[in-house]
Amino acid sequence: MASINQHRKFERNGGNPNPDGRYVLYWMQINRRLHYNYALEYAVGWANKLDKPLLIYEAVRADYPWASERTHHFLLEGMAEHQQELARRKVTYYPYLEDEPGHGKGLMKLLGSKAAIVISDEYPAYIMPQHNAAFERQSSVPFITIDSNGILPLNLTEKAPTSAFSYRKIVQKQFVKCYSEPPQADPLAGLKHSTPAVIPTSALQKWPHAGWRLQDLQKFVGRLPVNHDIGKIEMEGTRKAALERMHTFVHEELHRYGEDRNHPDEDKTSKLSPWLHFGKISSHEIVEEVFSLMPANWSPDQLEDHQGKRRGFFNADESTEGFLDELITWRETGFHFCHHREDYDQYESLPDWAKQTLNDHLSDERPYIYSYEELAQAQTHDEIWNAAQNQLRQEGRIHNYLRMLWGKKVLEWTPDPQTALEYLIDLNNWYAIDGRDPNSYSGIFWIFGRFDRAWGPERPIFGKIRYMTSKSAQSKVRLKKYLGRYNSPLFGSQ
Ligand SMILES: Cc1cc2nc3c(=O)[nH]c(=O)nc-3n(C[C@H](O)[C@H](O)[C@H](O)COP(=O)(O)OP(=O)(O)OC[C@H]3O[C@@H](n4cnc5c(N)ncnc54)[C@H](O)[C@@H]3O)c2cc1C
Q1: For ligand 1, atom 6, which residue shows the shortest CA distance?
Q2: How far away, in angstroms, is 242 Cα from ligand 1 center?
């Protein structure tokens, strides 16, 4: 029987590996981890087959969209960790950090021209599709991208999901098959060729190895042309930090997820999205960790199709079912949508009913109108909204429940839905450490009706789009401590 993982492979150009190539090149772009990574595993497989050394290349541009100190630090902390681990394991690592926009141009072409074959990450959003398409055009050796994003391979679906329900039905049919072909925990352990790869001197002369820069991140990042108003956060961009968070969550907090996840005062969600976004941790290993808590007579092989129903598929308690539904169904709905829809970030991609109802209410009077700057600085009349925005500015995240309210209010307080969308994309992608992800677009477009249905009664501005108010949030969820904390002078702008 064919492997389900064949759906993870994207052969971008034909041809055979170059027998004279000096190494197999793994270009690590977004799934920035050395463990549970199908792409790295595939590159190791080719290195073994061709009996060539492996070169791992990881870079950061100076001018990626929404570039800030915050994202730069997070990325570079992860690279410093890779540098240490790969030195210890004697695998050649070439970290490159652009110091001025455009300086890195030509480096991938040069590295690729000396390779036998190039492997990289398949990813359906942000700048990766363009990066991969550009390299595909210029590569003279086979270029293959591997999808290591989720439990179900992107190519398993035939079209963009229209709702979490429709995607959940596919998950329930395919989960057992996909979960039974996991990525290897430590793919580098299987690397046979022991001689290190030699990085071309012509590359190192023009594009210096970033090793020394990774020793003093503050100094290097401080000089870059990135947004310095959006500063470093406490969360560290390392795999070590991701694993610590996962263990604490799964073993100490998961049992309260069902009950407490919507209460900002409790803040009992996993907080794993930043590390998931940068690929520091894989959803496979999180699911594996959650399954380690299941009773001895439980096995994933027993799971049966559940016709898309939200609860009961995993035969687990409410907290576990709820968490796995977010991590698998909700997270991957966004990935599969972006994979099938190049216009995933465009207003036009909204369902027709949503565009129609928003259009019907275009001339409704807006009770408040705020500029982008007022929103960014958390200067609205609404203390809940300001607290959420203050948390986002300072910590790079917003509590999950309040993130929905935060988005809905921007739709209400801007002149038209297109402006609201533009502001939300910018606010989210500048400040949120998990921003620029397929789920940034799931969450933001959900505000305008994507993956949702029409609701009644029809309301001003929103029409049939689901409506949320700060007043009902105040009565439904516990947030007194949250408001005290994020509207205090320490966090707030007032
Ligand atoms: C306006 C708006 C913007 C958003 N922007 C982003 C974003 O930039 N990046 C991002 O990863 N998520 C985004 N989300 C989705 C969701 O808010 C976050 O994934 C979640 O809050 C992350 O916190 P957590 O890791 O503690 O989640 P948990 O509740 O612990 O869930 C575990 C994982 O499941 C996934 N997940 C959870 N909820 C959702 C959801 N509603 N949709 C999709 N995946 C989900 C995430 O990968 C998350 O890490 C947005 C939602 C809204 C309403």
Answers
A1: 440
A2: 16
